[in-house]
Design brief:
By secondary structure, the protein is mostly beta strands. Helices cover 5% and strands 35% of the residues. The structure holds zinc ion (2 copies).
Protein backbone atom coordinates (compact mmCIF):
# COMPACT_ATOMS: atom_id res chain seq x y z
CA UNK A 1 0.00 0.00 0.00
CA UNK A 2 1.59 3.24 -1.15
CA UNK A 3 0.20 6.15 0.83
CA UNK A 4 0.72 9.61 -0.57
CA UNK A 5 -0.33 12.86 1.04
CA UNK A 6 -1.45 16.28 0.01
CA UNK A 7 -3.30 19.37 1.07
CA UNK A 8 -4.54 22.82 0.21
CA UNK A 9 -2.51 25.98 -0.27
CA UNK A 10 -2.91 27.25 3.31
CA UNK A 11 -2.45 23.83 4.90
CA UNK A 12 -5.72 23.67 6.85
CA UNK A 13 -7.08 20.69 4.92
CA UNK A 14 -4.83 17.65 4.56
CA UNK A 15 -5.53 14.22 3.09
CA UNK A 16 -3.94 10.90 2.38
CA UNK A 17 -4.63 8.60 -0.54
CA UNK A 18 -3.52 5.13 -1.56
CA UNK A 19 -1.88 5.13 -4.95
CA UNK A 20 -2.41 1.44 -5.78
CA UNK A 21 -4.97 0.98 -8.53
CA UNK A 22 -5.48 4.72 -9.09
CA UNK A 23 -6.59 6.07 -12.44
CA UNK A 24 -4.67 9.23 -13.30
CA UNK A 25 -5.69 11.44 -16.17
CA UNK A 26 -6.24 14.98 -17.34
CA UNK A 27 -9.68 16.48 -17.60
CA UNK A 28 -9.89 19.38 -20.01
CA UNK A 29 -13.59 20.01 -19.48
CA UNK A 30 -14.99 23.50 -18.97
CA UNK A 31 -16.16 22.73 -15.43
CA UNK A 32 -12.76 21.53 -14.24
CA UNK A 33 -11.03 24.48 -15.86
CA UNK A 34 -13.37 27.09 -14.43
CA UNK A 35 -13.54 25.53 -10.97
CA UNK A 36 -9.76 25.62 -10.57
CA UNK A 37 -8.79 28.55 -12.78
CA UNK A 38 -6.10 26.34 -14.29
CA UNK A 39 -5.51 25.53 -17.97
CA UNK A 40 -6.36 21.90 -17.28
CA UNK A 41 -6.67 19.60 -14.28
CA UNK A 42 -4.95 16.29 -13.58
CA UNK A 43 -7.01 13.91 -11.45
CA UNK A 44 -6.14 10.80 -9.49
CA UNK A 45 -9.21 8.62 -9.07
CA UNK A 46 -9.45 5.99 -6.37
CA UNK A 47 -12.12 3.96 -4.60
CA UNK A 48 -13.55 6.04 -1.71
CA UNK A 49 -12.07 3.56 0.80
CA UNK A 50 -8.60 4.61 -0.38
CA UNK A 51 -8.97 8.29 0.51
CA UNK A 52 -9.12 10.05 3.88
CA UNK A 53 -9.16 13.68 5.00
CA UNK A 54 -6.64 13.80 7.86
CA UNK A 55 -6.89 17.44 8.95
CA UNK A 56 -9.45 20.20 8.60
CA UNK A 57 -12.63 19.95 6.59
CA UNK A 58 -13.39 20.86 3.01
CA UNK A 59 -16.58 22.60 1.89
CA UNK A 60 -18.69 20.96 -0.79
CA UNK A 61 -20.02 22.43 -4.00
CA UNK A 62 -22.25 20.44 -6.35
CA UNK A 63 -20.93 21.34 -9.79
CA UNK A 64 -23.49 19.12 -11.49
CA UNK A 65 -26.30 16.75 -10.54
CA UNK A 66 -23.81 13.94 -9.95
CA UNK A 67 -20.49 15.53 -9.02
CA UNK A 68 -19.49 17.31 -5.83
CA UNK A 69 -16.26 19.32 -5.62
CA UNK A 70 -14.54 19.92 -2.30
CA UNK A 71 -12.57 23.08 -1.54
CA UNK A 72 -10.71 24.64 1.38
CA UNK A 73 -12.98 27.42 2.62
CA UNK A 74 -9.98 29.53 3.66
CA UNK A 75 -7.67 29.43 0.63
CA UNK A 76 -9.94 28.10 -2.13
CA UNK A 77 -7.86 25.13 -3.26
CA UNK A 78 -9.98 22.44 -4.91
CA UNK A 79 -8.85 19.23 -3.27
CA UNK A 80 -11.09 16.43 -4.40
CA UNK A 81 -14.32 15.47 -6.12
CA UNK A 82 -16.87 12.88 -5.14
CA UNK A 83 -19.94 11.53 -6.88
CA UNK A 84 -23.44 11.12 -5.52
CA UNK A 85 -23.26 7.33 -5.90
CA UNK A 86 -19.99 6.99 -3.97
CA UNK A 87 -18.21 5.28 -6.85
CA UNK A 88 -14.89 7.10 -6.61
CA UNK A 89 -12.94 10.01 -5.23
CA UNK A 90 -10.92 12.16 -7.59
CA UNK A 91 -7.98 13.95 -6.03
CA UNK A 92 -6.46 16.97 -7.76
CA UNK A 93 -2.90 15.91 -8.59
CA UNK A 94 -1.84 19.53 -8.18
CA UNK A 95 -2.50 19.36 -4.43
CA UNK A 96 -0.24 16.35 -3.81
CA UNK A 97 2.86 17.24 -1.79
CA UNK A 98 4.97 15.35 -4.32
CA UNK A 99 3.82 16.63 -7.70
CA UNK A 100 5.64 13.77 -9.42
CA UNK A 101 4.06 11.03 -7.30
CA UNK A 102 1.70 9.99 -10.11
CA UNK A 103 1.69 10.52 -13.87
CA UNK A 104 -1.39 11.02 -16.07
CA UNK A 105 -2.14 8.21 -18.50
CA UNK A 106 -4.91 9.73 -20.65
CA UNK A 107 -6.69 12.93 -21.68
CA UNK A 108 -10.40 13.31 -20.97
CA UNK A 109 -12.56 15.93 -22.68
CA UNK A 110 -9.82 16.64 -25.20
CA UNK A 111 -12.45 18.35 -27.37
CA UNK A 112 -12.70 21.11 -24.74
CA UNK A 113 -8.93 21.65 -24.31
CA UNK A 114 -7.83 25.26 -24.99
CA UNK A 115 -6.30 25.43 -28.45
CA UNK A 116 -3.11 26.92 -27.04
CA UNK A 117 -2.54 24.13 -24.53
CA UNK A 118 -0.23 21.65 -26.24
CA UNK A 119 0.76 18.58 -24.25
CA UNK A 120 2.99 16.60 -26.59
CA UNK A 121 2.49 12.99 -25.58
CA UNK A 122 1.12 9.79 -27.05
CA UNK A 123 -1.48 9.23 -24.36
CA UNK A 124 -5.01 8.16 -25.34
CA UNK A 125 -7.32 11.09 -25.96
CA UNK A 126 -11.05 10.97 -25.37
CA UNK A 127 -13.32 13.67 -26.80
CA UNK A 128 -15.53 13.48 -23.68
CA UNK A 129 -15.45 11.28 -20.57
CA UNK A 130 -12.95 8.42 -20.95
CA UNK A 131 -14.52 5.02 -21.63
CA UNK A 132 -13.42 3.72 -18.23
CA UNK A 133 -15.46 6.43 -16.46
CA UNK A 134 -18.78 5.28 -17.88
ZN1 LIG B 1 -6.54 26.01 2.56
ZN1 LIG C 1 -13.59 17.82 -15.95
Amino acid sequence: MALIVGGCLCGRVRYEVERDGAIVDYCHCDTCRRSTGGATVAWMQVHPSRFRVTAGEAVAYASSEKMIRHFCSACGSQLYMTDAEGRSVGVTVGTLDDKDAVVPAAHGWDSARPSWLCLADDLPRFAADPDYDN
